[in-house]
């Protein structure tokens, strides 16, 4: 039975369970069999990507897994997403506090060209994987094309087939007016229509597929990436590396016209052994999980208060549930209810003294108070940092305490210690998917005069296919090239002010 078949067979009143594996934590109202199968397949998918790209494990990645929330339907995912989510079938957010993905058990659509939830989840994890395992900036067409290439992965008896045809992109590839290859290569630098964006995905998939199975063109592509990451404009880099983009476009047309396309089977014996543990959530966690999902999805001033109000009753009913109290401490903190947040953290720590989330939020509360009071008392700041240090000791490879420790010096108006800078660099190594963390590191690198390093840090954001053409990273890169230090400082300040949990 397929993973999606197992999900569809899940009893309606099943208990919420948690499945833990090396790279993922899953939460779902599912049977043990279903959630274990899903976690296993996600781990196998991760293994297939490591095999495809030749990427080894990064020490400490297991402390920063992707949390996947499995909702019953696409409609439920869209409701959780909120405004702007009318057409999504799942979504992902890369964050130093913990990357999250939301996926439905089943699709609302049928037919051979329908987009399936597994494809969306695999597509989004591919973005997470590439950002986390490469220091190279990819153009929009390859970022989306590579995610589409592996997103259609099909599980077979012997292994995982990569490069399966992207049937859901058929209309954009076969029936719509073809996107000029110059537009495809320059798509990060201009505003595209909805149909042009659709073709960045479709023709990006086609070009990526072609490159994957042509040794000569792979070498051309590597040259193109090298030129692009040296700062050469994408179209110029493409013409230099590939010889002629128009000739490449003609080759793509012939490739698309083939009756069959190749695939790549990654056999299960080539993948690491998968270890998955499953448990039923405690009564407090079961009651709190709807609020936890909303909190983890991200809140603003309005929704933070709503989540806090709903969760308060649950928190009062389960004062001895350390995990539920830790979750509630975060919700109260986000809502600005500092007294309730600290009380919840204290309740959690009374039961589980090394609970990292509670230790972290104790520190965040003390830091916020010190910053609000504009304190200049070193002892007060050090006391606040002591909680962050304890959170770090609970799991030295967790990225968030490292990032918060560095931020504490900026909050205090102090020059960060060397240990704090080292911690920031380590946090970025562990979770480079977090955009705010990239800006924080780039700011530190600029302050230290490490301009070339700052450019490398920012370049993947400048080419982010989901960002606007004048996104802050692209703006900052241009300013760094211009040498206008005052404008650089202003751009950094503006970008930092646009951060937030939402």
Automatic annotation (TrEMBL):
InterPro entries for the chain: TPR-like_helical_dom_sf
Domain of life: Bacteria
This protein's name: Tetratricopeptide repeat protein
Provenance organism: Sphingomonas yabuuchiae
